[in-house]
Amino acid sequence: MADGLTAAIIAVGSELLTPHKTDTNSLYVTEVLNDLGIAVAFKAIVGDNRAELASHVAHALTRHRVLVLTGGLGPTDDDLTREVIAEHLALPLDENPAIIEAMERRFAARGWKMPAVNRRQAMVPRGATVLDNPHGTAPGLWIEHGDRVLALLPGPPREMKPMMDGAVRLRLGAIAGNVRLHRRLVRVAGKGESVVEEIVQPIYSRWLNQSPRIETTILAGLGQVELHLVTQSDDAIAALASLDGAVAELAGALGPDLVSTDGAVLEAVVGELLRARGWWVAFAESCTGGLATSRMTDIPGSSAYVERSVVVYSNRAKCELLDVPEQLIAEHGAVSEPVALAMAVGIRKRAGVNVGVGITGIAGPGGGSEQKPVGTVCIAVDSGESRVRTFRFPGGRDMVKAMSANWAIDMLRRHLIKS
Known about the structure:
alpha/beta, 6-stranded mixed sheet, 13 helices
């Protein structure tokens, strides 16, 4: 059994270290490896530098059984992958006549003569298996060295992907056996990363010593936290049962801050809560400019529960479209809990829906004061029963808007599960 099988990925090419070229190969390689039950423990991007590449190869092979390299198999002097691997494994490079013949035919089909420099691509570490590349001149290489396996793949995605999903997948599948990765994604809202860590760390630390072992990763976003649970096992039933138990523990500890245990995003969860009740919602947005509604309507089928939205940026719009009293704004200011609540009530009544949401705030960079600095946002939810809160969000304009929309949707979620 290959339980615990891990892999490293190295993307080779100095162009990948510039802002003009993004390494997408590693994402595809990771997807194939994970599908085979092989966990990716290490990724690196290395320029066309012999010493750097050799150092990363040595590190990867010391710690991981599988190493996949993409790029650096071309015909020029800066294509170093073949040479570095051969040197590290102490394997001589032999010219492969079949590769030269295939390249010559490929060039001849286009009416060209193969440049002599392309002969470098026919140099093969002794004992390596050549992987055919029908989409380019650089063949791939499969090397088994002791208990380590290496796949050397061309850099262009149109050449790399068929090779990774074909010959390499077949060979790695034989090594991985029946082991597979099983995952759960738990989403949390209303708490910061450090607070969530304090709650869940005593729980997930115990999972590292059980069988099957569950590893947990915490990722923070704007107003949300993700918990990624991963276990590697050849017993799918036991693995899924273990994950079910782990998720249940987290749910008990997180309470109403738990958004979903199946990876469902916040707006989809809220949509299902509205649909289950047969409720309709309407939004009145000021500082967010319709962002909360946009997120809600990103979900297919949202026309079954989102009735309307109005962007009421000015005080005049708040009064004319939502019946917010002018005196209320004069007394408390447009950014205040009374006005946010009046907006939520106003949109609920005007739209004739079950629940209304009101958002008003100062997104910046100007407009703040000592009493109400930039980032002050008031959010209200009303269904006859009301909830209203004032927030102080950090960051620039985009962050304030994003955080405001997220909290508005989450306040709606909490209102629905409690009312």
